[in-house]
Structures
1.
Amino acid sequence: MRLFFLLSVVFSLSCTTKNTTEQSIAAYRVTQNITYNNINVNLVIDKPALNEVDVLLVFHGTILYDFNLNTAANTALDKFKSILDRDDMMIVSVAYPQENILLGDSIIQCEAALLWLKNNASQELGITVNKIFLAGHSQGGYMVTRLNTMHQTNGVIANAPGPLNLVYRCQLEENSQIQPSAVCTNLKDEYGITSTNPNAYFQRSLLNFTNGFKSDILFVQGLNDSPIQMYLWPTFKQDVISCSSCQNRQFVEISGGEHVSLFESLTAKTEFNNFINNH
């Protein structure tokens, strides 16, 4: 009887180990709510059939309403996956909130996602996370650039990051030179107009985060992007180049390219993959 019991325990442990191993090796895409330091955020996790992976953590661009967050996160994941020349990386897309939030405040959800990936993901997902890369498009590029001033990773890619200067952008809206946006409306409600409190606007601008990059970073910019982006791009580029406290910075500018150049230009896609494969 004792022998039967011991054999049953061994068999049970064997089955549990086998099931856990099979689960960790299986490929899947799931949406998972994670918590780190009491900050909650939804992640879309696309995992290959491996139990040891490098990870690309991606960030979507601007949306108006948070009910579109999961769609935006899945779209961003699909876009980055479509240009990635490796099928052995796990891609995690962050559904960071934007509705009724001042631009930049959702950096706390973005940071929580990164720190969860660094510190908790291996145990919670039953896998081994090796290298971690960040990639973002538009406002997602803004987020990964800011995160690069906060935490070290294996590398960062930012496509058409912005907004670069909210003072300039929101002043154009105040003067009715461009259509109003939720971003500037929320800032105006909080701080007043740009001429009254320009520093509050600038502190949230990407031009305020051009120093202290902790990891190598690749910027991709189409040179036929919006006039607002291109008016400020040379200043942003020069500030980044002038940084004396940054890891390596690389710029890929696409002649004739528009806002989504990373996903449309063969040159940009090649540089994107070279950057990841060389790090």
Note: The chain has one domain: 27-165+205-277.
2.
Amino acid sequence: MSKKEKGVFRTNLEYFATLAGFKIIRMIPLRIAIFLAKLIFRIYFYTDSRRRKRTIQHILHAGIETDHSAAVRLAKINFGNYAQTAVEIVKMDQILTPKNLKEKVSYSGDKESIEKFLTGEKTSPAIIVTSHTGNWELAGITYTMTSRIPLLSVMRPMANVKLERFFYKRVNNHNHNSCLKKGAIKSLLSALKKGESIAIVTDQHASSSEGIETSFFGHPARTHVSPAILHLKTGIPIIVVALLRTKTPGYFTFNIKEAINEKPSGDKEADVKKVTQMYTDKIEEIIREYPEQWPWTHRRWLDINRKSKYTAPDAE
């Protein structure tokens, strides 16, 4: 069998297996689906030693827990969070609708920003910076249903084209649309000019061409700068948000931090670095409050679990 044929076979196998699981989950009540998914991910926690060890290392590295046993407990809960996120995405249209939004979603954080960008009679467009905390996929449609402003977010291409089409067809609704990461700046600028909001996830490792070094939990990390560049270019405020799950399945808190409004000083490099660190700090604030809802397995830092040894800029 050729590589091309094997690719087609695997693509279809993954697609139809996912489709079958998708249909089963949608038929099961939410609480039961979450229970079963968490059971599967608990098995995954014990069988995938590489991700388990990395998750524990990162929790300790960030100082969220200083005791190894406590880090292990948090890691177990964290894997369960992955499971719940997956179920919520599959059942997203069963969980949140325009009719039940006021019942299912509460708001927390900066009161002025909540009124200005989310719940006011006349809301304003924003550059939304978010992270993989809580349920970031549901956050998009929650924002558009709440603010009544169209939203364009940046999507990462999936290895499986069929799954990509299937997935984004589901999350792109209620005036929420996506654009490809490659060449996204042009599309994002166009959306802002039309009075729409844009959303960019910035909590994952950025390449040297896409990001700059910031401090994240007191350690060096490279963060995407596109929100900072767009903010300084357009003057549109940056808001850091997260749709955080509550103890009751299917109920959420939409957390929003105080808006970032920085005027260019004339030193573009310094301005970009300052703004990027500002939204990085706000993301860290949310994660510190809800550490179980952020994916600690991701290789976010430059000084741990990296193939190349990190050298601090001032040490070069």
Note: The radius of gyration is 20 Å.
3.
Amino acid sequence: MAKAAIPPRSHGKKMERPKSPFATFQRILNYMLPYKVQLIFVVLAVFGSGLSNVAVTYLLKPAVNQYIVPLIGQKNPDLSGFKQLVCCMAAIAGGGVFCTYLFNRLMLNVVTGTMRQIRIDMFTHMQKLPIRFFDTHTHGELMSLYTNDVDTLREMISMSLPHMLLSVTTVISVFVMMLILSPLLTCLVIAVLILMLVTIRLITVRSARYFAKQQQALSRVNSYIEEMAEGVKVVKVFCREERIKQDFAEHNENLYLQASNANTCANILMPVIGNLAYLLFAVTSMAGGYLAAAGRMDLGTIAAFLQYTRSFSMPVSQISMQLNAILSALAGAERIFHFLDEPEETDHGYVTLVNAEISKDGTIAEVPYRTGQWAWKHPHHDHTLSYTPLKGDVVFDHVVFGYNSKKIVLDDISLEAKAGQKIAFVGSTGAGKTTITNLINRFYDLRNGKIRYDGININKIKKDDLRRSLAMVLQDTHLFTGTVRENIRYGKLDASDQEVYTAAKLANADAFISSLPQGYDTVLTADGVNLSQGQRQLIAIARAAIANPPVLILDEATSSVDTRTEALIEQGMDMLMKGRTVFVIAHRLSTVRNADKIVVLEHGRIIETGTHEELIRLKKRYYQLYTGLFELS
């Protein structure tokens, strides 16, 4: 026979309520529509499971009245009818067991498929979000969506919803049968039930409050552990081990007290409900016995009614708890759907990058195979096409930009970088150096002005094609889990092994890679934690080198390496930069001396432009920076 619903695994945090539960539930149902046939069978199986329990219980009445009581005292009782009734009860109970298995098994298929599609949609949508979204949302927020909220939603679909339906079915059918058997005893059950619901409400409200305090205390303990783990060297240098043990003991003691209070409330809930259920059973038994003694009720009715009483109390309490679990899951689902509703990165570009062959007379022809030469394919309003060779000319024309409407980051920026030139940006932190490079690859769109790439407004170029023509080496290097070879090849997925080796040699990374335990097949994990910061930077530069782009953006690419490694990188970069347009951001001014043009930024404006020698002769801000009269911060 069907059992009462399993208690939900909530209590971990303060109960949240969805703002639009019906709209959210409708969207969840839309994800479940591909499994509508299975869902129909789930509903039928839930009804079958609940009703089988009711039917078996009701058969106790004829079993007692028609067979057990009349056969008492007979020496050779005829048990054939009783055996048939028992077989009927067993068949109904077996059907209920099968229905329970069926709806649980079908819901497993539904929930795994639904969660798979939701995760696919979330991850796919995340790839289409603009950089601005990631600037305003932490990685922890995103991971919480993929873990906590998705897991809570999974539990709701797989456990809470079917068991909620089962509980409701059981309560309604049992209540109807109780009314049929004895309206008077049913009123008694309702009175005790009200007491039970009030008790559940008082305990769960207090429990939720204590669990909220427990989560706050747990958060403080985890944060303290993480902070001390990261600062372990500082702790040891200043011999503060005893002090931090005392501080941790205080945090841990507070967690112990809050957890004790929270779990005390949570753990007494089920015993209290159980005792109230026993109280209900006892009171009903006494009342039924009195009615039987008065001749107003037969024994079969009492037996069936008492069994219904046992089947009635637990589903009622489960409905309350499952409802809270469902509402909490809907609140998490709202966050998931809010994430899915975030506006995607728009792209109205129509100029694309194509493989090209350039004849001796300068004619450009598009070809379907890789040639090593690229061209911009530009469709026009008159349905004609023009092709512009990819060179790497970049022009800023009175560019104005701000991350929000209240603050301008770049103000009236105009500069030109011809193909093959090395442009260096210097200035204090917050001057707008990195912002300029982010505008070139259209991580952000301009407020005013234009940026032209090979004479084409970059707003007309498809973002994917624009970014394929660029390569970036960032200050914060990110390596993926995989081999060194795979990390380098990330810049060009179809690159041959020889191209990987050539790129590594060009970045002066081949020597240290060859000395690794498995060489290029050494597996990197946790963002390359088994490498030094300088080695990780060399791999990132090799990754940019293998892409072989006409434009390179180096955002303080050598800031994390020592002087010797920096010299090795610069040798490789000099070879890599030949014939390419390069934008360099560096705090070490010694690395930009050979730049074709140095741009000095201050408060989002260009205050000086020229070569190293020209700016030194001016004896203004660059001169002050270079000679140490003014510190970069």
Note: The chain has a mean pLDDT of 82.
